[in-house]
Amino acid sequence: MIIGFCLLWMESKEENVALTIIQRDNTLSIDESLLMSLSHNKPKKSVTTTIVPKDYICTQGDLALIDWIKEIPCEPRVEVVLIDDAFVERKWMECLFQPDAYLGDEVIDCYINLIKAQEHLKCRSGGRVHIENAFQFNFLKRDGDVETKTDELYPSKDMAQISSAERRVLLYLDHDMVFIPINIREMHWYLAVINARNMEIQVLDSLGTSSGRNDLIDTIKGLQRQIDMVSQRKELKDHRWPDLRVASWPLKEIEMEYAKQTDSSSCGLFLLNYIEYWTGDELSDNFTQDDMSHFRKKLAAILLSSDINKRKGCPLYKYDKEVDAGCSSDVQILDSPTNPKKRKLPCVSEENEVLMEDGDGPITQADLERWFVHDWDKRTPIKIPTDECTNEFLLSGLSTKDMPVTKADLIDVLCDYIMTIQDDTTLE
Q1: Structural domain that includes position 118
Q2: What is the pLDDT of residues 138-157, one digit of tens each?
Q3: Is the pTM higher than 0.90?
Q4: Of the residues 11, 234, 251, 267, which has the fewest C-beta atoms closer than 10 A?
């Protein structure tokens, strides 16, 4: 079974790589000149740049790029945008091609990363700016639930969570403004700005003041809880905030004048432009609902053609076939080889050819032959009861200062561990 598992993984990996290379070659041969010719003023390239209505409208080159991306089927695992730690799959781009669609957080995060890449937008007239991603709001809101104790959210043993909250608090305190996208039940986006200089929470909402702010209030309470927790662990000093009682700061609704939404689906587009233009006191550039109607499709071209999009012109196919979500198991048991007592390697290379590298150096075909064939056949298999198939068993094979193990030993432990797994979910 373990041989079948390894063969299946390696064959699938080789097919994926080949498909990616083919797609990359085809794309570059057709569209490289098109991609090189595209240029956009958004996000703002400098403080002196003024965004005008035509900057929201697609050029012929933009439309050609969009037509090309539409030719790619909306299959799972086809990644077309990767900007820093945010990515967009082909199927998620559809919200930019449908005029009444709600923008997903994947698209929101990718454009936010484009904004964050502009140095001049990191420091504005209102001070230093930190822009949160689209899902951080959920964690802050969770922490704002007064019925849940802090010890339950951040157990003393869970140092990873505590350290994460501490880093976030220190990051916020090192900035004058923190921009937090707020998502109300996946139906509406608006922007909350924690403005430390003014000691107020500013609300920029394309629908005006008609919406309730319970989500935002819980978010600020969650941040206050994190600040209090961190302040108990260490002294908070040398920061930029004049007052750490952020939950006591007033909410201030910002009148958006012309930058208001008149349809039912453009809130995410307004949110992105608020993030891009808000200085702490005003919007640096003007825009209207008409601009946002054009910007929806323009946003697709901006993301796809960005110089920092690592998938620019070469979508990554993570699987060569659509994943069958209805299948009860993705595990395939292959037939046993003719001689089940003898391991066979899935490919044959020159003995000294370097196949891969790890922290200990290069791994050659001869290394694999020795570990998986010769040494394996000489060892005595370890029989492990099903109830001992645990993480503790797996960790027991790791090298320690007092008990160093070889690379071959680690492979043996891993193989033994996999052989004990009985159910499809765990094996996957």
Answers
A1: 17-317
A2: 999 999 998 999 989 999 88
A3: no
A4: 234
